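Re: the 105-residue chain
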Amino acid sequence: MDSTATIIVSRTSERDIKVRELLVAVGAMSTQPLRFGKLLKFEVAPGIHEVMVSNRLYTKRMTVDVKEGETVKLVGGNVGSGCLFKPFMVITGMGAYKVFLEPEA
């Protein structure tokens, strides 16, 4: 019987500015898009895995250690960068925003 663990990456934080998709990968698995309000579930072997979240401009990485049968839940998203972010976004319709990735509370 194969032992498995689960890593879930969601995009449900109210801090998220809800624009631009994120790209998510766990280890060498293929990158998958993640839109606001959705989640991705990765079945993995127990052990240490690197989770990567990117908006193509900024990338965050986190190492997680998952035990057999365990589910690790993470949340990621885009956040505005700096005090000039909102005026710039309003005027141009675009802006530089960073990503966050953290354990789900």
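The two ends are 32 Å apart (CA to CA).
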